[in-house]
Input
Amino acid sequence: MVMKEVKRLFLAILMAVVLSLSAGVSMSAFGQKNNNRPPKEPEKVKQPDKQPRGNTNSQGNSNRHGRS
Output
């Protein structure tokens, strides 16, 4: 019976050590800033040179062919 308790205690300690090491490694990996890419230039917004013309519809329908 003593052997089972020692084995259970050893496994619990081993699992605690493995979990603490894995948590420490993953946190240090997230803490690193390894960005070697060149900086990106901001996109320029194109401004229209002049105001768009108003839509008056005064030209009429140029698609008429006069078919009867």
